[in-house]
Amino acid sequence: MKTPPHVVLIGFMGAGKSSVGKRLAQQWGCVFIDADERIEEREGLSIPDIFREFGEGYFRNLETEFLKALWQAGHMRLVLATGGGMVERPENHELIKRLGKVFYLRADLDALMARVPLDPHRPLLKNPDIIKQRFALRQPLYERLADHVVDTLGKDPERVAQDIIKFMTNTR
Ligand code: S3P
Questions:
Q1: Atom of ligand 1 at shortest distance to CA of 15?
Q2: Count of domains in the chain?
Q3: What is the pTM assigned to this prediction?
């Protein structure tokens, strides 16, 4: 298999960005980067702690800084799992696009929430009204930003990864 271009996974919490991304990177023998993990490592704080101590706006700034730094680091090849809220900042769209092929892992809200029940690492999950509002806000943004939409309903991460591999192979 030839070297794939970078692959960026976007989608709501519970879409499977990290589990699919790990499988893709393993398959291609390239670097996997999880944006949330990198931000936590850099700050020395968990995401819930960042939200609690500094607020969501601060976390969103960290996400934008992360995207800029990743571009400057100039990795050879990578698969990136973005945080579900990165699309909320318009300036992030260009930063995401220029990194590589963007795949939206799509599912409906019920399916997404069934995959992440009461996860303490996701501060926004505490409020069902916020979740619904954010989902409605972001869904069109994910669709617009994506080069390709992958429907994940009823598929396990392995199957979703295979769909992406097929797509990348056919479009090379
Ligand atoms: C968030 C999603 C989380 C994490 C943070 C905020 C969001 O990432 O960045 O809790 O706003 O949807 P995942 O999409 O990986 O869960």
A1: 14
A2: 1
A3: 0.94
Which atom of ligand 1 approaches the CA of 119 most closely? 16
Q: What is the CATH classification number for the domain harbouring 75?
A: 3.40.50.300
Q: Is 23 left (phi over 0), alpha (psi -120 to 50) or beta?
A: alpha
- Ordered per-residue pLDDT tens for the chain, 172 residues: 333 479 999 999 999 999 999 999 999 999 999 999 999 999 999 999 999 999 999 999 999 999 999 988 776 889 999 999 999 999 999 999 999 999 999 999 999 988 886 666 777 777 888 899 999 999 999 999 999 999 999 999 999 999 999 999 887 6
Cα 46 to chain centroid, rounded: 17
Query: Ligand 1 pocket, 122 CB below 6 A?
Result: yes
In a domain, 2, yes or no: no
Give per-residue burial for 35-57: e unless 16+ CB within 10 Å, then b. Answer: bbebbbeebeeebeebbeeeeee
Ligand 1 centre to CA of 123 (Å) is: 8
Query: Which residues form the domain of 64?
Result: 7-170
Of the residues 8, 9, 10, 36, which should be mutated to test ligand 1's pocket, given the most ligand atoms within 8 Å of the CB? 36
Residue 86: inside a domain, yes or no?
yes
